[in-house]
Specification:
Length: about 200
Amino acid sequence: MFQVSFVKSASKLAECPEPAYPEFALIGRSNVGKSTLINAFLGQKGLAKTSSRPGKTLLINHFIVNQKWFMVDLPGYGFAKVSKVQQQKLKSMNMEYLLNRPNLVCLGVLIDSRLEPQQIDLDFLVWLGQNEIPFFLVFTKADKLGYTKAQSAAAAYKKVLLKQWSTLPPVFVTSAERGQGIDEMRQYIAQLVDSYEGQSL
């Protein structure tokens, strides 16, 4: 499926790999299931480290996929068992990356499908819009809620967003455990990779 290898971890933008390939990053609140989703998406168990402890990802982690594009695992935001100083450091790291990474094509924002819309997520999406950072939404853990209910939860979430947004980004309802929504995400990113390569010729 994918040929994937870990490239490096970075604590700041200057340490990231050379921006030679199109790049797609994933981010979400702590404990949203980001590492599990990355492993399912790439078909590589244990590639991104999972943990029962929220906030395990503390660095910007780059993976090269098919020698054509980067998948980037960003630190989560919100509650995590780290100090306020560490939380601020992670926030600054993410903001520096998102605002200044020249080859970032799109950001996947992960949302726990089991929860009502959280203000921290809504505020983050507004910030992305204000800074013109392209993103798509990924609702996780659909298997925990039931796929039909997860679809309904995503629809309700979109209604909330439409109070502030005239148009919505692509939305994927996923289950890393059952593979639901994963192929759709793969197809979407493949299209963006092809478009990026076409522009760079």
